[in-house]
Design brief:
single chain, globular, Alpha-Beta Plaits, binds adenosine-5'-triphosphate, 309 residues, 2 domains, Rossmann fold
Amino acid sequence: MDVMLTVEGLEKSFKDKKVLKNISFEVRKGEIMAILGPNGAGKSTTIRNIMGIMYPDKGTITFHHYNGKGIPRNKIGFLPEERGLYKNVNVMDILLYLADLKDYPLDKARERALMYLKKFDLEGKDKVSIEELSKGMGQKVQFIASILHEPEFLILDEPFSGLDPVSQEMFKEEIRNLANNGTAILLSSHQMNLVEEMCDRLFMMQQGQKVIYGSLDEVKRKYANFKCTIHGKNDAARLERIDQVRRIEQQGDASVLYLEKDVEPLSWIKQLPDDLVIEELKLNRISLHEIFIDIATNKNLMKEGELNA
Ligand SMILES: Nc1ncnc2c1ncn2[C@@H]1O[C@H](COP(=O)(O)OP(=O)(O)OP(=O)(O)O)[C@@H](O)[C@H]1O
C-alpha cells in the first residue's frame, strides 16, 4: 500500500464558522478515492487546502515521495470545480502553456495533446479558439490540461458535470486508465452512480466532519442494509408487518421493503408470508446514492452513532 498523500487533523474556519473539523484521510498510488458530501460539507475547502490555495488553521498535509518538500505542484493535476480557460487563445496554445507551467517538455506535451484530442473526439480542434468550443468540449480540453503533464496525483472536482453520457464514459475510462497506471486520484462528485462504479475507497463528510471512510466494499457491507423489491399487488400495511421491515415505499404494484440492519437474507426470505403476491422479487443492498441520502437527511445512520469507520 503506497500512500501518496496524507491529510491529518485538518481544521479550517471562516470568521467564526468552523467548516473543517478534524479531517483525516489518505490517498494511495493507483487508487480512485472519492470525497463526497452534501453541498457545503467542506469538500472544496479540503481540496483547496491540499492544493495550497488556502492554508489550514490546524493539521498537516503530507505528500509522501517528496521528502517533505511541500506541495509537488508539477506532479499534481487539478480539474477545479470552477471551469475557465482563456477564451481567445487556441486549444493547443493553452495546453502547451499550462504544460510549460509544470515544466513539462513541450514536444512531448504537443504529442500527448494531439493524442488526447483525438481520444476525446476533438481531432482537428487544436487550432480552434476556446470560445468557439461547446461547454462539454471546453471541459474535455480542461481535463486534458489537468493530465497532460503526467501528474502522479490528480484532483478532479466534479469532472462529469455537464457531460453527455458518451463523454462521461470517455472520462470514466480515462480516469480508470490513469489509476491503473499508478496515478493517485481524488475525485469529488455528486453523481453517486458513477462514484459507485469507479471508486476504490471513499471519504464522506457532512458539516465539515467525517461520516464514512473506507473501501467501497467495506462501506457497502457496513452501511448498505438490504432492500427487497417485490412486484405484485400487496397491501402496504401487511408488508409493513413483516418481520425486520424498517419502512416501505410503494409505486404502483411495486413495493420496496427497506430491511433492518443485520438481517439474515436467506432466513428473512424463508419467513415471508405464503400468500404474498410475487411476480418478481429482488433482494440487494441499497446503493451509494441511498446511503448518501440516508446520511444527508439524518434518516438512519447518523442516529446510530457508528459512522466513524
Ligand atoms: N471563502 C469562504 N469564506 C467564507 N465561507 C466559506 C468560504 N469558502 C467556503 N465557505 C463555507 O464553507 C463551507 C464549506 O464549503 P465548501 O465549498 O467547501 O463545500 P462543498 O462540500 O465543496 O460544497 P458543494 O458540494 O456545494 O460544492 C460552506 O458553509 C461555505 O459557505
